[in-house]
Amino acid sequence: TMKNPVPQAASLLLEKLLLLVHVRPLPADSGVESSAPAAPGYYDTSCFKRGDLLEVPRTLFIHFGIYLGENRVAHLMPDILPAFTGDRRQIQQVVTNKRLILGVITKMASIRVDTVEDFAYGGSILVNHMDRLFKDQVLSSEEAARRAEKLVGATAYSLLWNNCEHFVTYCRYGAPVSFQTDKFCETVKMIIRDQRSVLASALVGLASIVCLGLAPSTTLPTIFIPFILWMAG
User: Fold this and answer.
1) pLDDT confidence of 6, banded at 50, 70, 90?
2) Strand order in 126-127's β-sheet?
3) Longest C-alpha distance within the chain, in Å?
4) Catalytic residue selected from 47, 164, 185, 211
5) Hey, which residues does 76 pair with through a beta bridge?
6) Helix (H) or strand (E) run with residue 169 in it
7) How many CA atoms lie within 13 A of 44 on its CB side?
8) Which class would CATH give 52-177?
9) Where do the domains of the chain lie?
10) What share of the chain is helix, strand, coil (3-state, %, to 5)?
11) Is 164 one of the catalytic residues?
């Protein structure tokens, strides 16, 4: 028998939403919030140069950062804690999933500086892999690093308009863009166009309300898109 495509589509959409904001869903029987990062010295930083754009590919998303030298990486992460304290020691602690999710909901983030190990979290690292897409727009390495350093601190967060990829492309290429967000939006459009994915469409609307706020532009589609698809089916 064929499985119902609606729960599958909804599950896939939710997983993509979580992964795009760097949350790694844990197994249902796991009592641990996150696994430990790689041990210090796991990565050979001698091949990295100040101003390099570092990518850490995951299953469904890529995390980005700018290498500052001396085993330091500047990267943007959703985080609620800077809204409550200016204590650098607290903020600099590894961001938990709870802090991250609340940061997404409240549209708050921080551009922080971590070790390569904490930034990559055991994943493989690609260096300047995006340069091929911005052939004549690559800024000098020092300019990229200085831009990143200047932006360190609390900042607004938007899944669509200000995520970790927007940060690094601004620093290295002078233009904030996010290809993985564009790809995600195309996936959402495909799901919405599928008349069998009424539940997934409702999830998209609810997610937009959470991320973008309660407004006619988000509330009305949430109500009417599933209704229209249901009627059409």
Assistant:
1) very low
2) 126-127, 53-57, 62-69, 72-78, 108-115, 153-156
3) 60
4) 164
5) 111
6) helix 164-173
7) 2
8) alpha beta
9) 52-177, 194-232
10) 50, 15, 35
11) yes
